[in-house]
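Methods — Computational structure assignment.
A single polypeptide chain was analysed. Its primary sequence is given first, followed by the predicted tertiary structure written as structure tokens.
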Amino acid sequence: MTAKLFVGNLPYSCADEDLRALFESCGAEPVDVRVIMDRATGLSRGFGFVEMATYDEAVQVRTSLSGASLGDRNLVIDLAKPGRAGAKPTRG
């Protein structure tokens, strides 16, 4: 079963590829990476979600990367809370 992580305090220039590269740099293999984009500006809204293959892998990578820097920002990483059916996950 997969586990989703909330990643906050992303730089506004961050794209999916940047976030994936950060996770892969610590040996993680994300199943899916999504930086949430503002429709009007096309820039990052400052947060995203990374899906890992297992809960244990998600906890391990969260521990490894919590407080890590991307751009000039220190990331906030938490397990995402499951939302309503069809709703987007939220920060946990």
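Note: Residues 83 and 89 are 5 Å apart (CA to CA).
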